[in-house]
Amino acid sequence: MAACIVCEGNIDIPEDTEEGEIIECPECGIELEVVSIDPIELAPAPKEEEDWGE
Amino acid sequence: MKFGILVSYVRFEEKKIFEALQARNIKFDKIYDNEIILDYQRDNTSYDLILDRSISHTRSLQCLKIFNDWGIKTVNNWKVANICGDKSLTTSVLVSKGIPMPHTMIAYSPESALKAIEEMDYPVVLKPAIGSWGRLISKVNDREAAEGLVEHKKTLGTYHHSSFYIQKYIDKPGRDIRVLVIGDKIATAIYRKSSHWLTNASRGATAEAFTVTSEIEELSLKAAEAVGGGILAVDILEDKDKYLVIEINYTPEFKLLHETTGVDIAGMMVDYAMEVAKK
Ligand SMILES: Nc1ncnc2c1ncn2[C@@H]1O[C@H](COP(=O)(O)OP(=O)(O)O)[C@@H](O)[C@H]1O
Ligand SMILES: [Mg+2]
Ligand SMILES: [Zn+2]
Fold it and tell me: What distance in Å separates the CA atoms of residue B133 and residue B249, rounded to the nearest whole number?
């Protein structure tokens, strides 16, 4: 469990979550990046850059 | 064997790759491109192979070049990333190797771009040479729209939007074909369907399994080989009875492919990377 940095809602962080995963807050819908696992730390998901892609 | 994966974020694809590595008992490091510091003068890594999954073309290309110069094998290698990350370079390579593509031109000023568009005739598609996910791609149906667009690109875009990559619009049947090539094999392929003319997965296209014909197999393998080979997703349009390649992606997302076909793409990628490492 972690608190959403925007709405303070509860976000369930599954056991197999990795650093660098993008998760969505179920309460407010914002996308967050898991920047650290131990301890859990969340940050706003990054803004898309022009050279990003698949 | 020391295996590294260069990542920006951990998406569905990267998680699947981690799982595939774990299932094969292969030890690996996750190398976050946000955290990495590369000292040109000192090879401070000792990897046998690095698999590139960075989301950024700039970072991918620079890191792959450094790794390759240090003697580290990468999938894909920097030359492939260089060509595939830029639609102008891709087009030049594919056309020179005889791969069919839509008629495509490049021009560097709004005036010459308009001339090229008029010569090609409408509708045309303008794409940023470096870009993905269907972003900033425009279909232009007439001269008025073309005039506005080239002016906007020139005035409001970053400098690379002043390279006007212009392609004939292909009236395709509401879908395109995405073929995933791994080494000298086709891993799997799908149709991507949409009511919108852009059929990118990131634009909400839906997928349908595609049974690879010998013609598509031959075209995809030839196109992948032309840009240097590796793990490559070839985008193909149907133009009546012809097939035209439009681009090749060198760090392909494969969630839609995986969900549609059930093929263990991550496993195939890892096995291929291991083969490259042993070569
Ligand atoms: N010349 C074209 N004619 C018709 N549709 C096109 C053409 N080029 C691209 N498209 C459509 O736009 C999508 C994105 O184009 P693509 O060249 O693959 O760029 P991106 O790198 O953004 O995916 C394609 O999947 C296809 O549906
Ligand atoms: Mg594409
Ligand atoms: Zn929230």
Answer: 11
